[in-house]
Design goal:
By secondary structure, the protein is of the alpha/beta class. The protein has 2 domains: 97 residues, Alpha-Beta Plaits, CATH 3.30.70; 199 residues, Rossmann fold, CATH 3.40.50. The protein has a 7-stranded mixed sheet with strand order 10-9-8-11-12-14-13, sandwiched between helices. Strands 2-3-1-4 form a 4-stranded antiparallel sheet, with helices on one face. Helix 2 packs antiparallel against helix 3 and helix 5 runs parallel beside helix 6. The termini are far apart.
Length: 307
């Protein structure tokens, strides 16, 4: 008997729900605090206040769920972004059918000419011209809705068309595993997919099996380039890193060392205003910009190590 997905199990619950939010965030702090709320909220959104040029990050969760985990995540977000954590606010919302409606609202998504993301509640049917990736919006980041994930898939579609050999593949901060699955399906090569969160590793491995690439997909709990298995796989021909701007800058040297000559890195998780900072960090280590793909407020960078 097939197991229910996380979203389907949650949809049947009747727990009281609450909206939690953080106001008046500077733009550069948005990715870190958005990631913090995603730890405990099935749905997270960001809004810009044009009058003050600040941002609001808002999520919905069962009341009080993951309070301790959220507190730790907010503290890390404050440390990463370098600002004092704003006050977390909360208000109750109607729970009847909300999560079920959320599941139904997550429909198929066409991403460029290459991919279609299909949630499990949508019936399977043959899709001509696009690769189908089956997964649900859930506790691990990466359902194809976010601009950074879409940008990575669009960038990968173009990189894969270049017909350069891509044999060693790495996905840092894999989340749901969507990028690593796309690479495994398209290239038919093994992919090492890592994350610092245990549940993301489990979700990614389950998604890979559901998409028929379990044998090509190696999910590991790892802290970036420090992990011995990540180091042992060097040099990589293709690296995905959909993380945050500051960690990307901190890992620039390791990325340059870990890429093969002529290798490609697809970086995301940064706002358009953070592109210059991220580019500068990587150019200092010899990487060159090949392409920039804007997706709303977000940007994806394709970098190359010269051959």
């Amino acid at each position: 008997m097939p197991r229910d997905t996380y979203a389907q199990r949650q949809a049947r619950r009747a727990d009281p729900l609450e909206t939690i939010w953080l106001d008046a965030l500077p733009e550069e702090a948005v990715p870190a605090f958005e990631a913090a709320l995603q730890r405990v909220c099935p749905s997270v959104a960001i809004f810009r206040d044009e009058a003050t040029d600040t941002w609001r990050v808002e999520g919905v969760r069962p009341c009080g769920q993951g309070d301790e985990e959220l507190a730790g995540a907010l503290a890390i977000a404050a440390l990463v972004s370098g600002i004092a954590p704003p006050e977390l606010q909360a208000a109750p919302v109607e729970s009847d059918g909300w999560l079920a409606r959320t599941v139904e609202a997550f429909g198929e998504q066409e991403i460029g000419a290459g991919f279609l993301v299909r949630p499990t509640h949508v019936p399977d049917r043959r899709e001509y011209g696009r690769m189908v990736l089956k997964l649900d919006a859930g506790i691990a980041f990466g359902s194809g809705e976010h601009g950074s994930t879409r940008g990575c898939l669009l960038a990968f579609h173009r990189v894969a068309q270049d017909r350069r050999p891509l044999r060693r593949l790495l996905d840092l901060g894999t989340g749901s595993g969507i990028l690593a699955m796309a690479a495994a399906k398209r290239l038919r090569r093994p992919v090492l997919a890592t994350d610092i969160e245990p549940w993301s590793v489990r979700v990614a491995a389950d998604n890979a099996k559901m998409n028929g690439v379990g044998r090509l997909f190696r999910a590991r709990l790892a802290d970036g380039w420090r992990d011995r298995h990540v180091k042992a796989g060097r040099p990589y021909d293709l690296v995905f890193a959909n993380i945050l701007a500051r960690p990307l800058c901190a890992m620039a040297r390791d990325l340059a060392v870990g890429l093969a000559p002529g290798g490609t890195a697809i970086l995301a998780g940064l706002l358009g205003t953070q592109v210059r900072m991220v580019l500068a960090a990587h150019r200092r280590h010899g990487l060159v910009l090949e392409r920039r793909l804007p997706q709303g407020a977000w940007a994806t960078l394709v970098l190359r190590r010269p051959a």
